[in-house]
Structure formats: C-alpha cells, structure tokens
Amino acid sequence: MEDMDTSQQTSRDGAAADTYDVIVIGAGPVGQNAADRARAAGLSVAVVERELVGGECSYWACVPSKALLRPVLALADARRVDGAHQAVTGTIDTGGVFARRDRYVTDWDDSGQAGWVASIGADLVRGQGRLDGPRRVTVTPPGEEQGRARTLTARHAVAVATGSSPLLPDLPGIDEARPWTNRQGTDSSRVPGRLAIVGGGGVAVEMATLWQGLGARTTLLARRPLLPRMEPFAGEMVARGLSEAGVDVRIGVSVTGLRRPDPDGPVTLTLDDGGTLEADEVMFATGRTPRTADIGLETVGLTPGSWLDVDETCLVRGVEGGWLYGLGDVNHRALLTHQGKYQARTAGDAIGARAKGLPLDDGAWGDHATTADHHAVPQVFFTDPEAAAVGLSAEQATRAGHRTRTVDVDFAQVQGANLHADGYRGQARMVIDLDREVLLGVTFVGPGVSELLHSATVAVAGEVPLKRLRHAVACFPTVSEIWLFLLKAARE
C-alpha cells in the first residue's frame, strides 16, 4: 500500500505543525476503526488520544462490565440446571472476579492497543486534541509532559470520535455525595455493603445485576419502567429477575437530594415520596453527555458541548468545506460501541472515496451510508434474564407510520430452551411490516438470548421476506428454534 505523504509545516503561532490526510480525535474502538479504514484507502493518519488508547469501552464500559458480569451469570445459569446446581455450594469469589476483569482491561495498560495503532501505519499523538479552525487540530501534551502544543493539519478530514461522559443530575448535595458513575461501577475492587443505583436504562440494570451478584445489597431507583426504549415486556421481565435475585427494585421513584457529611460514611438519599434511603455508595446511571465541550467546536462555528448533527456518511452538517466527521456517541444516533464502529468503517471508506475523487455509494444500504442507524440497531443488556433487540419496537413502528402486526411467543414451548435451562423463562416478539412482509424489529428476553440476536439483525437489515425466512431451518434442539415458533405463529 503506497501512502500519501506526510509533511511538516509551521503554524501561525510558530509551533511545529504536521500534515496528514486524516486526523482522528479519540482512540477508542470507533476512532481505531476510522483510522483503519482510512489507512486501508492509502491515506496517512494521525490518531489523537488524551487518556488510554482503547477508550471508555475497553477500560470502563463494555469490556470490564461483561468480564465482571459473566461469572455472575454463569452461576445463575448453573443454578437453572438440575444436577449442576447441586455443585454450586459456595459463594462467588470476588477476588477472582476482579482479577478476571483486570486481565481483560490489561491492568489499564494501553501499550497493546497503542502498538496496534502503530501496526496499521498510523501515528499516535498523546494529549488533548482541540480543533483550531478548518482542518487544524492542536494537541496539548498530557500531565507532566505538558509543554508546547503540537499542531496537526488535515488535507482531507478530521474525525471526532471522543465519545460521551456520564450525565449527573443537578441535585442538592451531589458533589458532597461523591457518586459512582459507570467508571467506578466497573473499576472498583471493593464490594459496598449497600449500593443504591439511580436509573432504569441498560447501564443501571447491568450494574444492579453485577453488584447484587457480587454481594452488595442493591437498591435500584427508576422514575420510569426499566429499559424504556425496548418492548415493555423486556423491562418487566428484567425487573422481575432483579427482584428474584434480591435487588430492591423501586419504579416511579426520584431522588431529590443527597447528604454525605462524613466523606468516609454512608450517603443518604432523599426521595420524592418523602422517604430516605441510606447506602454505602450511590451510583448514577441517568444518561450521557457528549465529550465535545473542550475540543474547539467554537472555532468551526459549532456550539461547544453539543451533539454533532451528521449526514449518512457521518459528515457534520453546518461546517463549510465538507471535512469534519462525527462518529460514535458524539452524533447521538446510537450510544453503542458496535454501532459506532459500524459508523467509523462506513465513514472511513467515504473519506477514502472522497479523497480519491471517487463517487459515493450513499443511498439506502449503500457502502457509504449508515442506514442501519435508523433501521437495524442491535442492543443487548447482560442481565438475568438477558434482553436483546434489533430494529423497531411495536410502538416505534406504529409511530413511524408502518402498518404492523406483532407476533409473541413464550420460550417455554421451545424444547431447546428447556434443555438449556430447566423451567426456562423467556419471551420473543417479531414486529412485521404488513405492506412488505418483512421484519421491522425483533426482541428476545431470556437466558443466553444475546447469541440469538445476530440472526435477527440479519433478517431485519437484509429485509428478508417472511416467505424466504421460513426456509432458514433452526437446528434441533437449540434455543434458536424460537424462530420456528415465531414464523409458525406469524402464518397462523
């Protein structure tokens, strides 16, 4: 592969300036995928990172949370199989669980991922990257290395992949309470005696599953039903699973204030029902905000701290010249690592095509379009039971103007499910587009259903006609036989 060349210039303030074809701000999975695709197109790339190469996902979100959750869920799975549950005689080894997490986050050492950036021929620049007008990025070195800023210039594109941060509510006493966010929820190696979790989305329910499983007496406080963006039965079944595991699930409750007069003492939460709750730690999982407040958006006419409005190629609207891209969480389309990586691959290919003057394939489902962001976003929550969905819920499909029919099936009638776990409890739903006879959405709830989701994603993204889908034979006796029952119910 022949690279386009990198040259040195001098910035208007006299600092050293390096020129690349593409500059990526943020070296998490999204930024890495953008860099990889740009390099595959023969473009020179600089990747800027202010924290750890690998980002939030690798060290404080997806990877550590799943590494911690797997032992909890493995025990739950074992207890559902007669002959195996009798072997579960002790308590979970929290030290072993935390050591497993530490292995998967490589003890928060990013040298391996930094080496990967180098292996694709991209340059890693450590420090805080800020836009400094069109196609310019100023990088301030980190910590003790702080000195003269380095200025990078992009010939073709700057891709912002800086992710998002926890959004803490403006409540009296919140600073005094020193609440956990997802970071403390995944990097702590101490199990609190009592943990209060505020929120009802995916992070909240996963953290409740995790910490209750590790031995914390957990209370989950949510203003609305759990998992509000999924089918209602998903949140209901997850709430029941949490309650059966010992979590005190309280729906329709809000926190109005917090007190923690002793930094080493408990925190008291004041609730809107007039009651209080005392806990050793409190965690807020109440939303995310884009990490765009300090990256120089104002120098290109955008509002600092805002979500980036992008087109189908993830090109940021409202910026002259067509050079700024917003990838992953910052564009607010789907705050999911896998979806951000998909956007980055698509945008990286589009950047390569534009740099070479090639036509774009940016129509629906084209190589340079992020169509799946609107029609086929998959998501999984690793609770007990798991909740997995792709595409539109029944309510979302109706609001979008589709004529639909829903088909619901209880997993209890699937022999493969009952062989997987005695007394398997789960539910599945298909949302059918009546005009085209294709699937608009699929939801599964039950132990291990995350492994069913890709088949549903293929069906939704591929717009596979139901008539054709019936010829995709599920193996007996597996949990995937749920497809047979769903399609049979659809015909009837």
UniProtKB/TrEMBL annotation:
Superkingdom, taxonomy of origin: Bacteria
Domain FAD/NAD(P)-binding: 20-338
Necessary cofactors: FAD
Cofactor note: Binds 1 FAD per subunit.
Keyword Cell division: no
Record: residues binding FAD: 66, 129, 162-164, 329
GO molecular function terms noted in the UniProt entry: dihydrolipoyl dehydrogenase (NADH) activity; flavin adenine dinucleotide binding
Disulfide bonds: 57-62
GO biological process: 2-oxoglutarate metabolic process
Binding-site list for NAD(+): 199-206, 287
UniProt keyword annotations, A-Z: FAD, Flavoprotein, NAD, Nucleotide-binding
Domain spans labelled Pyridine nucleotide-disulphide oxidoreductase dimerisation: 377-482
InterPro entries: Class-I_Pyr_Nuc-Dis_Oxidored (IPR050151), FAD/NAD-bd_sf (IPR036188), FAD/NAD-binding_dom (IPR023753), FAD/NAD-linked_Rdtase_dimer_sf (IPR016156), Pyr_nuc-diS_OxRdtase (IPR001100), Pyr_nucl-diS_OxRdtase_dimer (IPR004099)
UniProt-listed Pfam families: Pyr_redox_2 (PF07992), Pyr_redox_dim (PF02852)
Family statement drawn from the similarity comment of this UniProt entry: Belongs to the class-I pyridine nucleotide-disulfide oxidoreductase family.
Name of the molecule in the record: Dihydrolipoamide dehydrogenase
